[in-house]
Amino acid sequence: MNIISGICATLLLLCQTVISNYDFKYDNQDEFVKGIVQCTQAFNTVIPPQQRVVVVLSVAQAGLESNWGQSRFAQLGNNFYGIIESDPTEPHIKALESDVSVKKYDRKCESVANYITMLNTNSFFKEYRDVRLKQFIEGEMDIEALADTLHAYAIDPFYVYKIKDTVAYLYRTYPTLFHLTTPA
Questions:
Q1: Percent of the chain scored above 90 by pLDDT?
Q2: Whole-angstrom Cα distance, residue 63 to residue 8?
Q3: pLDDT tens, 108-141?
Q4: N or C terminus: which one in the chain shows less Cβ crowding within 10 Å?
């Protein structure tokens, strides 16, 4: 385990109190968006600034991956990001038409915390971390450039475009929640 993975794992354990004591309910898209925002912000506050995720990207991916919280995986397992579970002894939900299983979470914010941890530790997202760190050091946030690095998240060749479209939609629809000048 490298140092970053160790730090993230330790922080995840420390954050369990924050995450396990927080959950949200939603009956519509507005409540779903606000819940994902709150979970992302809660987790972001307990990790180093250079490891924080951009809130609007977290919400965009959760919206895309879970159909705004309406997917079967979201409803049955609080999995808003389509995160795969490869260990059959861990809580999971099997896909209906494939052998894929996704993680099942007790609380909604656990899905958000796992998503953030995955971006911070999984080798598939090294480019994301490199771009984010460069932007952090330079003090400039380019959400589109960060979105460009998320091509490994899904097999859909148009996934990055969908993320960018969803981000634009979120800025238009929720201008009081998402500000172009305050990304995290």
A1: 70
A2: 25
A3: 999 999 999 999 999 999 999 999 999 999 999 9
A4: N
The model's pLDDT over 98-114, given as tens digits with 9 standing for 90+, comes to 888 889 999 999 999 99
Per-residue tokens: 93: 């939900």
DSSP string of 42-56? Answer: HHHTTS-GGGPPPHH
Structure tokens, 144:
């589109």
Q: Cβ atoms within 10 A of the Cβ of 45, count?
A: 11
Q: What is the pTM of this model?
A: 0.85
Phi-psi region of 137 (alpha: psi -120 to 50; beta: other; left: phi over 0): alpha
User: Rounded to the nearest 5°, which phi and psi values hold at 182?
Assistant: -130, 80
Structure tokens at 73: 């995986």
Residues 126 and 168 sit within 8 Å (Cβ to Cβ): no
pLDDT for the residue numbered 182: 47
Integer Cα distance of 73 and 78 in angstroms? 7
Query: What are 128's strand-pairing partners?
Result: none
Q: Pick from 137, 88, 149, 113: which is nearest to 12 by CA?
A: 113
Scan for tokens 């490199």, then name that residue. 130
